[in-house]
Amino acid sequence: MAGRTTSPGQTVTSRVLSILAVFESSPSARTLSEICAESGLPQSTVHRLLGELEEWGAVQRDARGRYQIGLRLWELGQHAGRQLRDVVRPYLQDLFGLTQETAHFAIRDGADVLYIDRVYGSRRVPQASRVGGRLPMHATAVGRAILAFEEGWVRDAVLGAALVQRTPFTKADPEQLRKELDKVRGQGFAVASEEVRLGSCSLAVPVFQADGRIFGGLGIVLPTSRAHQLERNLPILLGTAERIQAGIAHLPKAALQPAARARKPQQP
Predict the structure, then answer these.
(1) Which pLDDT belongs to residue 264?
(2) I want to staple 101 with a disulfide (CB 3.0 to 4.6 A). Which of 145, 156, 220, 233 is the partner?
(3) Each residue of 115-169: pLDDT tens digit?
(4) What residue range is the signal peptide (predicted)?
(5) Biggest alpha carbon distance in the chain?
(6) 144 pairs with which residues across the strands?
(7) Residue 267 class from Cβ within 10 Å (0-12 exposed, 13-18 middle, 19+ buried)?
(8) Are the beta carbons of 32 and 51 closer than 8 angstroms?
(9) Measured between alpha carbons, how far is 194 from 199 in angstroms, rounded to an integer?
(10) What's the CA gap between 142 and 260, in Å, rounded?
């Protein structure tokens, strides 16, 4: 099925996905005009499809009439990667219990990192990541911990693309980052400070599959005022990473290949 849209030949399914993709970068509520502008679809089409999505529960409206992701879609999304999250969550909780610092686990999603789970307490730390969110690999500690151990062509693809500079401190020079990744491979951990969000710093280590291939990254986040305390948590991070590696070794192969990992970074 194809209708009159700004993209001739676009199917109904692709139009619905274009609307839902508007909410991918941010959970903020959107107006009808904002959704039209970001999806590239005409208002009549967006209004009609949003009505159907709202009736099903995929989207809902706030008190100001703006649209946001609905609870039914959130509920459905909880089934994605559930086996992996069920394995990782107890170790993240242990990591938080031992350090009292925000802890997270992420995998590669193209040229970004996708956050699978996160545990945090009441300590105030500027937050840049969220469960289900993604950030640039080159600017995060978990991203570098993963990228340093990826195949050469993956590193070349990521560093050969346009590198976003999120803050004045983001390292965005490819040669500087290559040296940084060499250092990470040598020492076994990565550090990033105020490269995505001012006021926070992070320490991360790689998590490998049973066959030695890189799978994800495990990290903690602290306020930059306590950056000098980062590396004292390294032994706990390394020990937790080993426990996660042992845990995922018992998962079926399909659970270790989330759909996100199928998205390859474009090669230069």
Answers:
(1) 52
(2) 220
(3) 888 998 767 666 667 777 889 999 999 999 999 999 999 999 999 999 999 999 9
(4) none
(5) 60
(6) none
(7) exposed
(8) no
(9) 6
(10) 16
Q: Which pLDDT value is given to residue 1?
A: 33
Can you give the pLDDT at residue 217? 96
Is residue 185 classed exposed, middle or buried when 0-12, 13-18 and 19+ CB atoms within 10 A define those classes? middle
The whole-number pLDDT of residue 155 equals: 94
Whole-model pTM? 0.74
> Is residue 120 exposed (0-12), middle (13-18) or buried (19+ Cβ within 10 Å)?
middle
**φ and ψ at 29, to 5 degrees?**
-70, 150
Q: What pLDDT score does 260 carry?
A: 40
* Residue 56 Cα to chain centre, angstroms: 27
- Cα–Cα nearest to 36, from 62, 51, 15, 53: 15
Question: 3-class secondary structure for the chain?
Answer: CECCCCCCCCEHHHHHHHHHHCCCCCCCCECHHHHHHHHCCCHHHHHHHHHHHHHHCCEEECCCCCEEECHHHHHHHCCCCHHHHHHHHHHHHHHHHHHCCEEEEEEEECCEEEEEEEECCCCCCCCCCCCCCEEEHHHCHHHHHHHCCCCHHHHHHHHHCCCCCCCCCCCCCHHHHHHHHHHHHHHCCEEEECCCCCCEEEEEEEEECCCCCEEEEEEEEEEHHHHHHHHHHHHHHHHHHHHHHHHHCCCCHHHHCCHHHHCCCCCC
Give the Cα separation of 181 and 177 in Å (integer): 6
